[in-house]
Specification:
heterodimer, A: mainly alpha, ABC transporter involved in vitamin B12 uptake, BtuC, 72% helix, B: alpha/beta, Rossmann fold, 3 domains, 6-stranded mixed beta sheet, 19 helices, 20 strands
Chain lengths: 351, 504
């Protein structure tokens, strides 16, 4: 692996094989990426389903649903991926989504605030709830799994106490927001565009900013992060606040899409968000994976949900298929990581 | 303002305690720029604590730390780093999932507009650093799977890019082979010549004398001496390290040495140890000596059946001990007191009585049921024999002092009535008084006919207690010395021998 060059000051290291050009190595990186595999799986699934029923993709409704249905889950999965990459998990996002959706509904019903202000308030409320998670995880030194399991119930409880059997109907929601949720721009649903923008910003930040890279570092080895002098507590707070804010945004997207808000909103969706991230190649023990992968995972999950009935697989089995997918993704992850580790070790022993 | 004549780093009478345990009594060290300064001492002499105070990981309780003539008090590793102090720990700490380049620059990546990380500049800088060090590491590969030597090179590159004025290396060579050590030494000299102050901690005197210009000795958490390397000899340094007449502290009873109990032949596990032969006779204490990382604990765990081995055989009283079957090993009469008693030897949240009876529960239960009364009765008996100092049998093991914890672990294993006791670092982290008690106990067990295999990093303990000393170096047996032949020099020579043998 390493050789001592004859002189410590020699300008170029010797013995390394010349790199085979930037372009081809970049292509190899893309082909080897975990995300590519998931994307291929998604494309294969869409192709098979469409071959059996062309309306699945090639119809106005089919094409719209292809992008519209996953958009809420994509937003949640992006936030979830950021948290999981730090070797934590956020199980409270479903409750945050429900609570912020109801908050937005109440604000429309009880105040005359403009739509944009309500949207910002809902996102802010989500961020605050996420921050509470982050504070508990960063300072109480209790695993995030336990903390956010607790806040899952606490937030849901607050929601139930507040809403009771009350229910907000589409007629209470401003038309502007409702039409946003159902209309398209250049054939792409506006909600999907929102999720793409969120994804693009998060992906850019995770890849090119110090903050984003430090999330990976903290998840890769928390003890090393301390020795490096990274501001680990602050970064974990950021990840949880971002996850909460995105759950708040998802709450707004929910209102915009469905209009009706009852106390069951967002129930159980946190597990889908975790599932999407894991299927998309985000390692559950942190340190690797991307938000793009998590988003593709969200697409795969929702497409399977919609596509299985078309393939003639009974409802009954749909959950089981999703479960198998998650198990498969985790096993694959383990196998690939193991293989990579062995390969790296073998390279070292060969030298 | 840094004054040009002041030492790059100066510590004066620095102290640090953890609860009632004094880790560092009075540490002093003065390192000049452009010098490689050796810091030597036995395990537990306080070197690592001193390093962690320099690094900003621990905060000192008392004393003075000056950096380039200015009094400093680092509250975090980030502060020490920002000032220009880089520390390379015994175990390098890298992020396995991230690339070598990212590891080099984490937390201080070069950024362009909008805080965007300039990956191209980062990678170019990484290549420049490796070229300057004259090593060939692929900057794009993940840190996972790198050898310890390469990981250390990355740590050094990191220090270099920080433009560190002080570089501390805590036993960097403990896990390195001969030519890797040579490469590290070349790099250290390059750094010295560029005006860096290097602190080099090592147990290997050949390296210390080849590389360093000044040497500071520590013992029992205190400063002993500082000399120019040219003015002292290895013998003189060893004498100061040990600091006392070795034999009189250790109450070794004469025991009648009987038949062979434990017989290990050709034990091999690639990468850990090779072709290890060992015998332990009844009434005999065999010391297993060597440097940290020489493979002593690994051999012990393989013998007991906790870890696997690829080749070789273990026999106890003529019967074969199967690999990877500690329960069978226990049945045959083998016991292992592990090095890390808090993690491997005790259930910290369980009371003393449960801990003592843990290995004999099968024997104590009636019809599958175990009563506290039976447990307490047995535990009391053993606690009394070993003089465990605790208020009651239901005191939690985690709340005991190190010495009493060790007695509880010993009681647990002695209650299985073993023929051979393997004990790994019997007195690590134990105060001096209890140390002597543990030694007396081992001695009397041997006198009763038990065979004891004792692993120890403390030279005086090995020399004082063992009837025979087996020395390992880099996974190989390099010497077997009788009590008469075992001296600090002969053991240390054998413990550092492998590198020289390879070279010749």
């Amino acid at each position: 692996m390493t050789t001592l060059a004859p002189e410590p000051t020699s300008p170029a290291p010797q013995g390394r094989k010349p790199s085979s050009g930037r372009g081809s190595s970049r292509l190899a990186t893309v082909l080897k990426a975990r995300e590519t595999g998931i994307l291929l799986a998604l494309i294969a699934f869409l192709a098979v389903t469409t071959a059996i029923n062309p309306r699945f993709v090639f119809s106005t409704d089919g094409f719209r649903d292809l992008f519209l249905t996953p958009s809420i889950l994509v937003v949640l999965a992006v936030g979830q991926a950021m948290v999981i990459i730090t070797r934590n998990v956020d199980l409270s996002v479903g409750s945050i989504l429900g609570l912020t959706a109801y908050l937005a509904g109440r604000l429309f019903l009880d105040t005359g605030l403009p739509i944009l202000v309500v949207v910002l308030l809902a996102i802010l409320a989500g961020a605050v709830l996420g921050l509470v998670n982050g504070l508990l995880v960063a300072f109480a030194r209790v695993p995030a799994l336990v903390i956010t399991l607790g806040t899952l119930y606490v937030y849901r409880g607050i929601y139930l106490q507040w809403a009771g059997s009350d229910r907000i109907n589409a007629s209470d929601i401003p038309d502007g927001l409702l039409s946003f949720g159902t209309s398209s721009l250049l054939g792409i649903p506006r909600l999907a565009i929102v999720s793409f923008v969120v994804l693009a910003i998060a992906a850019y930040w995770m890849r090119t900013s110090r903050g984003g890279r430090e999330l990976y570092a903290i998840g890769s080895d928390p003890a090393a992060a301390t020795l490096y002098g990274l501001k680990d507590k602050q970064r974990i707070l950021t990840a949880f606040a971002a996850s909460g804010a995105l759950a708040g945004l998802a709450g707004i997207l929910y209102v915009s899409r469905y209009g009706t808000i009852s106390s069951g909103v967002g129930f159980g969706i946190e597990l889908e968000a975790v599932g999407a991230a894991v299927i998309g190649g985000v390692a559950i023990f942190g340190g690797s994976g991307t938000v793009v992968g998590a988003a593709i995972g969200a697409y795969l999950l929702t497409s399977i949900d919609r596509g299985l009935p078309i393939l003639g697989i009974p409802d009954f089995w749909q959950r089981a298929v999703v479960g198998l997918l998650i198990l498969g993704a985790i096993v694959l992850d383990k196998v690939l990581a193991e293989r990579q580790h062995k390969k790296l070790l073998a390279e070292r022993h060969r030298s | 303002m840094p004054s040009p004549t002041a030492p790059a780093l100066r510590l004066h009478e620095v102290s640090k305690s953890f609860g009632s345990v004094v880790a560092l009594r009075s540490g002093s060290l003065s390192v000049d720029a452009g010098s490689i300064h050796a810091l030597v001492g036995e395990n537990g002499a306080g070197k690592s604590t001193l390093v962690k105070i320099i690094a900003g990981l621990y905060r000192r309780d008392g004393g003075v730390v000056e950096f380039q003539g200015q009094a400093v008090d680092f509250r975090s590793t980030a502060e020490a780093k920002a000032a220009g102090i880089a520390v390379i720990y015994q175990e390098p700490t890298l992020f396995p999932d991230l690339s070598v380049t990212e590891n080099l620059f984490m937390g201080r990546q070069p950024t362009s507009r909008w805080g965007r990380i300039d990956r191209r500049a980062m990678r170019a800088e990484a290549e420049r650093l490796f070229a300057r060090l004259g090593v060939d590491v692929d900057p794009d590969r993940p840190a996972d799977g790198l050898s310890i030597a390469d990981q250390q090179i990355i740590e050094i590159a990191k220090a270099l890019s920080l433009d560190a004025r002080v570089l501390v290396m805590d036993e960097p060579t403990a896990a390195l082979s001969g030519n890797e050590v040579d490469r590290l030494m070349t790099v250290a000299r390059t750094l010295r010549d560029s005006g860096c102050a290097v602190v080099f901690i090592s147990h290997r005197f050949d390296e210390v004398f080849a590389l360093c210009d000044t040497i500071t000795v520590m013992r029992d958490g205190s400063y002993v001496s500082t000399d120019a390397v040219a003015d002292v000899t290895v013998e003189e340094i060893v004498r100061r390290l040990v600091g006392r007449e070795v034999t009189d502290l250790y109450p070794k009873q004469d025991a009648e040495i009987g038949e062979v109990l434990l017989e290990v032949t050709g034990l091999t596990q690639p990468g850990l140890f090779t072709d290890i032969d060992l015998t332990v006779r009844a009434g005999e204490i065999v010391g297993l000596a060597g440097l940290v990382g020489a493979g002593r604990s690994e051999v012990a765990q393989a013998v007991f059946g906790v870890d696997e081995y690829a080749a070789g055989e273990v026999r106890l009283g003529g019967e074969r001990v199967p690999p990877r079957d500690p329960v069978r090993a226990m049945d045959l009469g083998l016991a292992l007191v592990p090095e890390d008693r808090r993690r491997h030897g005790l259930v910290l949240d369980a009371p003393i009585s449960r801990n003592i009876t843990l290995a004999t529960r099968g024997r104590l239960s009636r019809g599958g049921l175990l009563t506290s009364r039976r447990e307490n009765a047995t535990a009391k008996e053993w606690a009394a024999r070993l003089e465990v100092k605790a208020a009651a049998m239901d005191t939690l093991a985690g709340t005991l002092s190190g010495g009493n914890q060790q007695k509880v672990v010993l009681a647990k294993w002695l209650s299985t009535a073993p023929k051979v006791l393997i004990i790994d670092e019997p007195t690590r982290g134990i105060d001096v008084g209890t140390k002597a008690e543990v030694h007396r106990l081992l001695s009397s067990l041997a006198a009763e006919g038990m065979g004891i295999l004792m692993i120890s990093s403390e030279l005086p303990e090995v020399l004082g207690m063992a009837d025979r000393v087996v020395v390992l170096c880099e996974g190989r047996k390099t010497a077997e010395l009788s009590r008469a032949d075992a001296t600090p020099e002969s053991v240390m020579t054998a413990a550092t021998a492998a590198g020289q043998e390879k070279a010749s």
